[in-house]
Specification:
Protein name: Glutathione-disulfide reductase
EC number: 1.8.1.7
Radius of gyration: 24 Å
Structural class: alpha/beta
CATH class of the largest domain: Alpha Beta
Helix content: 25-40%
Strand content: 15-25%
Oligomer: single chain
Number of domains: 3
Number of helices: 13
Binding site for NAD(+): 176-183, 263
CATH superfamily of the largest domain: FAD/NAD(P)-binding domain
Disulfide bonds: 43-48
Distance between the termini: 60 Å
CATH architecture of the largest domain: 3-Layer(bba) Sandwich
Active site: 437
CATH topology of the largest domain: FAD/NAD(P)-binding domain
Number of strands: 22
Bound molecules: NADPH dihydro-nicotinamide-adenine-dinucleotide phosphate
Largest sheet: 7 strands, mixed
């Protein structure tokens, strides 16, 4: 049977674009790709990239404060212009989008700038009504912000809206305590917005190492975020040009803008999955095996739509592994077990790889090497900001199970720590490494004795 394409990719985000480009350029496949919005997907257009640029923009006040501590007595951050920043941001995103498009076009991928839906196990229907057939179909449609089902929540923004605001709000409420709420609380407070963050739990960033979470929680307040723990909105209503919010403790307050950062759902709506036998998980994510293959042999899925590890580099690796396996006869699976990540807060980021202390303890005894200190650079300037470095070590095998860093440029540090940890390095190998002095990172190779040994909980592995 002949097909219009060897591969048709639905979704022009990081995972889809990588798969399409490699299949066409390295393996000579005839590839089509459909994208309903801007090429580049969440990460490039409305996520990681513009967010990180906003983080840089938001640190002027902290930098000026630090410089005053170094003798630049009149250092000031000055006045921030959202209009100027936004124009530059738009130009940068357009530049990146063009690079993505050029890469696809050089590889010979046929791009369809429209929505596509499945119309069978080898069939795609485009929004203009055209039908295309493909030997293989890759679903890479990503995720969409999830709301929590309270009255009036349609008045709130979601993260997509933050990058296209006409002006900065005077007073904003951010709902949630995850990646997006914490990063944008840091950004908005840094840009001078009166920022309130309401989170239902007792420390932000659930799922991360508890000690690091506590430091992140303290830091949010220290940078001027009015962080309200144990609080959730129950209703939103219009109040003039603003929004009146009722919270679950009965209080009411008005804001110029509300951002719901309450998680993301896999984006499968209207995808035509009912025309196939593809199975979904309970949360609506596409069920795939370790080869990113659905239960329909011709249909694969990668990235956030499969809800495995929802990070751009993971989607890219999944997309690349899929084409190596299917088109390059080089079977390659993705190891999702040791994936580093970072939350871009300021002044200190939270970065992590491997097990948290709580996870390591749940699996058996663990030696905790942890140090909390004021780093030279900010301490000299008069700041109380604390850094934390933590290694979790298996006392029997000496293997480093996890590393958690709360500090300046922690994301940059964890990238390097992830290499030995992914290779199964032991604490002795960390210790054998000579320190780079004076750095904060040298603590990772100079922590000689454990801060504590946690014995195995009854019923878990080691005694
Ligand atoms: P997260 O899953 O990280 O956080 C969602 C937050 O919303 C949690 O604090 C959660 O609380 C809260 N929440 C969920 N449901 C409710 C509810 N019904 N009422 C009140 N609060 C609720 O999602 P984000 O939206 O912050 O980010 C989505 C994903 O995007 C992340 O998981 C990550 O994969 C990716 N991302 C990665 C970044 C990075 O790598 N730096 C940056 C930004 C996003 P609780 O914890 O109590 O469940």
């Amino acid at each position: 049977m002949s097909f219009d394409y060897d591969l048709f990719v639905i979704g022009g985000g990081s995972g889809g674009v990588r798969a399409a480009r490699i299949a066409a350029s390295e393996y000579g496949a005839k590839v089509g790709l459909a994208e309903e919005s801007r090429m580049g997907g969440t990460c490039v257009i409305r996520g990681c990239v513009p967010k990180k640029l906003m983080i840089f923009a938001a640190q002027a006040g902290l930098m000026a404060e630090e410089m005053r501590g170094y003798g630049w007595c009149d250092a000031q951050s000055g006045t921030f212009s959202w209009e100027v920043f936004r124009e530059k941001l738009d130009a940068e995103l357009t530049r990146l989008e063009l690079i993505y498009r050029a890469g696809l076009s050089r590889a010979g991928v046929e791009v369809h700038d429209q929505r596509a839906r499945l119309a069978g196990h080898h069939e795609i229907e485009l929004a203009d009504g055209t039908r295309k057939s493909a030997r293989h179909i890759l679903i890479a449609t990503g995720g969409r912000p999830a709301l929590i089902g309270i009255p009036g929540e349609e008045l709130a923004m979601v993260s997509d809206d933050l990058f296209v605001m006409d002006r900065l709000p005077g007073r904003a409420l951010l709902v949630g305590g995850g990646f997006i709420a914490c990063e944008f609380a840091t950004i908005l407070a840094g840009l001078g917005v009166d920022t309130v963050q309401a989170y239902r739990g007792d420390a932000v960033l659930r799922g991360f190492d508890r000690e690091a979470r506590d430091l992140a929680t303290l830091q949010l307040s220290a940078v001027g975020v009015d962080l309200r723990l144990g609080l959730t909105p129950v209703a939103l209503e219009r109040a003039g040009a603003g929004i009146r919010v009722t919270f679950d403790d009965g209080t009411r307050e008005e804001f110029d803008a509300v951002l719901m950062a309450t998680g993301r759902d896999p984006y499968t709506k209207g995808l035509g999955l009912e025309t196939t036998e593809v199975r979904l998980k309970r949360n609506g994510a596409i069920e795939v095996d370790e080869w990113s293959q659905t239960c329909v042999p011709s249909i694969f899925a990668v990235g956030d739509v499969t809800d495995r590890v929802n990070l751009t580099p993971v989607a890219i690796r999944e997309g690349h592994s899929f084409v190596d396996t299917v088109f390059g006869a080089r079977p390659r699976k993705v190891d999702h077990s040791v994936v580093a990540s970072a939350v871009y807060l300021r002044p200190h980021e939270l970065a992590t790889v491997g097990l948290t202390e709580e996870e390591a303890h749940a699996r058996g005894a663990v030696d905790v090497y942890s140090t909390v200190f004021r780093p030279m650079r900010s301490m000299f300037a008069g700041s109380d900001a604390k850094v934390m470095m933590k290694l979790l070590v298996d006392p029997v095998t000496d293997k480093v199970l996890g590393c958690h860093i709360f500090g300046p440029e922690a994301g940059e540090m964890i990238q390097l720590a992830a290499i030995p940890i992914g290779m199964g390095a032991t604490k002795a190998q960390f210790d054998a490494t000579i320190a780079v002095h004076p750095t904060a990172a040298e603590e990772l190779v100079t922590m000689r004795s454990p801060s504590r040994r946690l014995q195995a909980l009854s019923g878990t592995g080691l005694a």
